[in-house]
């Protein structure tokens, strides 16, 4: 028996896959080459904006059920393929509707600053987010129509810079959301220090984080969310999780499920974390349970089997729990049942 897994970072609401871009990357194109050509996130934004709520909800529910069958009982779900207010709210509404329809807990994230819309500058987009998006979402939250748990930005060269990201995260926090953002992925911008200063719950990616950034995160108790599927897909150098652990930063794991990194299964992420990030299986388990729950501010009810917490657990059909990590791609054979809030979901 094992505690239910927690996936600390996903982008599960979208239409239109990007298998053609996988081929482009294999032929040598970088993630940012494709983004700057109008593909990548922009390609998914076009397709997601054209899709209706019903279609998006139906694919989201399928994906969430697959995650649950792979052992996930708490998952973070981002918006971020709408970019304009109408489509961002559409995505958040789709996530809201999924909450009562699937046997797992959702932590929702407003990620309107996932890319700069094609017809705007980053400055204009930041202004829209600060003056129109977040106030509107806050009013939907206050009237009980939406629950939004986290605020996110993609802080990166060619996307939102550190000052713009800081402003968005601060206003999101003031509106009642936890700070949880993409930082230090492709370039060292020192967004880890900025996030730590704002009291971020979590920062994801961190391949390029500096030693000072790690120290700042340790001091502020900010969780580092490592995303090995993305480092693998984009052949990035892995984030320095060993240094983070040594400095006292809690390291969590996320699948980063999105059209670029199409992985729904945390046991596969745990295997990649062991091999690529040099984590032990024990560390990967802590990262995919209690530390991920901590990244989402939900460790009081999720992430471990303790009296008073939800009864979210996995029953395993294997000689030891380590087989869940070791049997790459065979995790559904290892998991014989998933229990969510005391109820058996899959057998
Ligand atoms: O976490 N880096 C930004 N966001 C996602 C990718 C989203 C996409 O490519 O559609 C990530 O890897
Ligand atoms: Fe992401």
UniProtKB/TrEMBL annotation:
Requisite cofactors: Fe(3+)
Keywords assigned by UniProt, alphabetized: Cytoplasm, Histidine metabolism, Hydrolase, Iron, Metal-binding, Zinc
Species whose genome carries this gene: Plakobranchus ocellatus
Domain Amidohydrolase: 50-318
Listed pathway(s): Amino-acid degradation; L-histidine degradation into L-glutamate; N-formimidoyl-L-glutamate from L-histidine: step 3/3
Lineage: Eukaryota, Metazoa, Spiralia, Lophotrochozoa, Mollusca
GO molecular function, one term: metal ion binding
Protein's name according to its UniProt entry: Probable imidazolonepropionase
SUPFAM superfamilies: Metallo-dependent hydrolases
Entry's Gene Ontology cellular component terms: cytoplasm
């Amino acid at each position: 028996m094992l505690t239910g897994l927690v996936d600390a970072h996903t982008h599960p609401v979208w239409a239109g896959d990007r298998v053609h871009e996988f081929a482009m990357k294999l032929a040598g194109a970088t993630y940012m080459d494709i983004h700057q050509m109008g593909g990548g996130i922009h390609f998914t934004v076009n397709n997601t904006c054209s899709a209706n709520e019903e279609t998006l909800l139906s694919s989201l529910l399928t994906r969430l059920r697959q995650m649950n069958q792979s052992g996930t009982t708490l998952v973070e779900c981002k918006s971020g393929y709408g970019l304009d207010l109408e489509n961002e709210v559409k995505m958040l509404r789709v996530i809201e509707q999924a909450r009562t329809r699937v046997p797992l807990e959702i932590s929702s994230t407003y990620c309107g600053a996932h890319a700069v819309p094609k017809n705007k500058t980053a400055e204009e987009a930041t202004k829209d987010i600060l003056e129109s998006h977040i106030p509107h979402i806050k009013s939907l939250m206050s009237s009980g129509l939406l629950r939004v748990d986290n605020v996110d930005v993609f802080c990166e060269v060619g996307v939102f810079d550190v000052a713009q990201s800081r402003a968005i995260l601060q206003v999101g926090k003031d509106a009642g959301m936890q700070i949880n953002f993409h930082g230090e992925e492709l370039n060292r911008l020192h967004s880890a220090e900025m996030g730590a200063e704002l009291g971020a719950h979590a920062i994801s990616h961190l391949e390029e984080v500096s030693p000072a950034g790690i120290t700042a995160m340790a001091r502020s108790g900010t969780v580092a969310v490592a995303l090995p599927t993305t480092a693998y897909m984009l052949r990035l150098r892995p984030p320095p999780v060993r240094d983070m652990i040594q400095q006292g930063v809690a390291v969590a794991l996320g699948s980063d499920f999105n059209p670029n990194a199409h992985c729904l299964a945390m046991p596969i992420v745990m295997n990649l974390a062991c091999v690529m990030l040099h984590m032990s299986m024990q560390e990967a388990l802590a990262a995919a349970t209690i530390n991920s729950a901590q990244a989402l501010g939900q460790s009081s009810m999720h992430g471990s089997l303790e009296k008073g917490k939800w009864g979210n657990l996995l029953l395993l059909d294997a000689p030891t729990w380590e087989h869940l990590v070791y049997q790459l791609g065979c995790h559904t054979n290892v998991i014989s049942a998933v229990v969510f809030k005391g109820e058996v979901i899959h057998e």
